[in-house]
Amino acid sequence: MKFFFFSFALVYLLLVNNVNCLFKNLIRGFYCNDENCYSILGVSETASVNDIRSAYHRQLTNLKNNYDSEKKKKIVKAYTVLANKRTRKYYDYYLKNPNSIFNVFNFIFYCVFKLIKVIIALIIIGFLLCGFQYFNNKYEMKRRVQKLSKNKAFKKEVQNRIASQHPDFRTYEMAMKRKVEEDIEIEVAQEMGLMYNKKDEKFAFSDLIIVKLLILPKQIICYVLWNVKWLIKYHILNEEYDESDKLYITRKCLNIPAHRWDALSEEDKKMLLKKQLWVKEIQDEFFEEQMEKERLSKISSAKYKKQVRMKKKGSSFNYND
Q1: 128 lies in some domain
Q2: What burial class does residue 98 get, using C-beta atoms within 10 Å of its C-beta: 0-12 exposed, 13-18 middle, 19+ buried?
Q3: Does 21 score more than 70 pLDDT?
Q4: Cβ proximity of 241 and 268 under 8 Å
Q5: Is the same domain home to 7 and 109?
Q6: 32, 78 in Cβ contact below 8 A?
Q7: Which residue ranges does the record assign to the J domain (predicted)?
Q8: What average pLDDT does this structure show over 191-217?
Q9: What tens digit of pLDDT does each residue of 232-250 get?
Q10: Residue 193 falls within a domain, yes or no?
Q11: Is position 320 within any domain?
Q12: 218 & 192 share domain
């Protein structure tokens, strides 16, 4: 028991001494190391903020004739410490009590205070971006629905849906009517497949920029782990592709986005899987066919024919024009 107590006390003292030593070095570096910040600026400890500011500009002016980057860093650090009321108060206490544990608390409190200010600023910016994103999404949705409302089939479907879901629609207040009509227009547009992009879907909490930034580290880690797993499983161990990975390879080869793939029926997916694009030979053959189709499409295009004619005449022609 005595040995255990002695060992615990020894470890505790070592840890405390190391921690104190670490914080002492940090605090010294945070202020002016072994020099006195007041002496660097040439002012007394009772100097006012205006006196400190004047001394700071005077020291910088004197440096212009004989520039010294290290001396300038010391002057800037001394001014940073003394110009701020909070850090000056901490520094005055540090000068009187250099070995006090409260110097560590003051240093930690100042760092946390600065960190909280940065976090608050980032949160405000994040919410402003989210607000802009939300209203921009609403505007884009409304603009697209207005374009679709000119379609007779679309208008008819909207009216039928309103009549079936809201029999008392005519008795609603104007604001309620407008909201019901907008919701059903968006619903009908999505069901009719007139909105293909994911960004055109109803705004979700996970679409917020701030949420995406918060989950970004997790996504990066998952992406790296997924690639490592793919490399080991299929390139080193040469195992057979799983069903989910076969779907992934097929979707990538056909250049179909994830939301478009999810919208396909099971029969369509099975038809595409019959191509067996995860097989290396079939995949290479497929890409060659695609390149040949692109080449033939280019040859048959009017721009290509114009290019050939102009080349024969000796004129330059940019195909991308």
Answers
A1: no
A2: exposed
A3: no
A4: no
A5: yes
A6: yes
A7: 36-95
A8: 62
A9: 888 888 888 888 888 888 8
A10: yes
A11: no
A12: no
pLDDT, tens only, 128-150: 888 888 788 778 777 877 777 77
CATH number for the domain harbouring residue 58: 1.10.287.110
Q: Quick check: is 215 in a domain?
A: yes
Tell me, rounded to whole angstroms, the distance of Cα 195 from its chain centroid. 26
Report residue 93 as tokens: 């206490």
Dihedral angle at the C-alpha atoms of 81, 86, 92, 93, nearest 10 degrees?
-130
How many distinct structural domains can be found in the chain?
A: 3
Domain that holds residue 170: 135-203
Chain-centroid distance, C-alpha 315:
48
Highest mean pLDDT, choosing among 20-24, 38-42, 167-171: 38-42
Amino acid 83 reads A
Please write the tens of the pLDDT for every residue from 42-60: 898 888 989 999 999 998 8
Q: Are residues 17 and 73 in the same domain?
A: yes
Q: How far apart are CA 159 and CA 69, in angstroms?
A: 75
- Are residues 113 and 8 part of one domain? yes
Place of tokens 């971006």: 129
Lowest mean pLDDT among 67-71, 113-117, 151-155: 151-155
